[in-house]
Known about the structure:
Elements: E1 2-4, E2 7-9, E3 18-22, E4 28-32, E5 35-39, H1 42-45, E6 62-63, H2 65-72, H3 76-85, E7 91-92, E8 98-101, H4 102-109
Antiparallel strand pairs: 1-2, 3-4, 4-5, 6-8, 7-8
Helix pairs in contact: 2-3
Amino acid sequence: MEKIHGKSVDLKAVDGVRLSIPLHDGFSMTVTGGKLELNLPASALGDAFTTQTGALPPPSQYCSIGQEAERLGISERTLRTYMHEKDCPFYRLPGGDVRLTSSEVDLWMAPRKVGGKK
């Protein structure tokens, strides 16, 4: 027996038996055939899982790290540092490859400009 929000619940799941445990404010847990599902209300997710409203750039606008680093005149290592430590925007493809768009990188770099004519 487990205690969840002051309620004693036997968490042993039997095949074909569905055990639903209401928590609070729309949260619930369901155990079906030994698999646990946590059900969250959309409001609990906040902005963490919002859908992107803008269209993604067409594939022809994507660059590899090497192509973008060459365009910027920096090393690939420096660009990787910008991506992982400085929040430079990039896309990770399902196979693990990384792509960038020049327009997004330029927008990211604009506020970091130092010197030059105003």
